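Before we proceed, please read the two lines closing this message. Let me know whether the structure tokens fit the sequence:

…
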Amino acid sequence: MSDLDDLDLPPRRPLPRGVHDRMRATLLDEMRLPARRRAHRFRPQFAVAASVAVLAVGVTMLGQSLVGSNGHTPASGPTEKPAIDGTPPPLDWSAAQATMDRCWAAIQNAGKAASVPARSTWQPVFAVPKDGLTVTAIRAGTKPLICGTTRTTVTVSDPNAILTYAAGTKTAALLVSADGFVGGVMDPSWTAMQYITISKFGSSVGGPAFVKDGMFIDVGGYALVRRNLVRQIVPGLPTLPAIPDVLTSPGGVSSPAGQTNPELDLPAGPSALVAAVEMERRAPACTPPQGR
């Protein structure tokens, strides 16, 4: 027996989900930078970056998505679990205005301002912050708009896109992001809804989506998605993730948890109008000393 076997080490524990998500958000922010800038910034923290990369690979090998568990699973932060009726967190008005300014600036920089209602017509509906990501539902004039922001990125839905609705409803995705969030419009006859993602590996997560003023947001889903589903739910009755039969049933199945409405396929959302890395938010490049 070696000396190492004599060490009284503490029992192995899983990495807390909040820590995992924050590490992932930081890693994704850095990965979006051009290779040369990324290499420059990573050198001083090479050991930390390498450990994060190993963690990401390990999670993938276990059949998990890079995004992690659904935002409704208890983890860190006050917005992890919405109320059963989908009530979003209180709106921080000044933060929402700053976010909308970033979204508008990204649209302008992409040369697409002419196709979007003027910034003066924008009104925030609600926002969902989670581990460095904020997803904001906006009314731009009469058009619904979804904008997702991280420390260095902005992704904006196309307000003029033709939407594809879940069968027999007026529920549709406006924007589905590789960051693991979805935002869209909810059927006006629904008061609450469940959103479910099924990964490419067959696992599923689901729970009540945040809803308000005919719009919905769900955060923390899978990045490698096989199928997205929605269901009209009755507040107060329990909801469960999709059951295995949903993988083969063409129209979804009824929940065994008391919800009588079927799970419906949510068609893929349209392409984003803008998906940008903000140049001015990157760390400034080192300026070499000037020779005499």
Notes: Residues 32-80, 244-256 have pLDDT under 50 and may be disordered. Residues 14-61 form one domain. The chain has four helices and 13 strands.
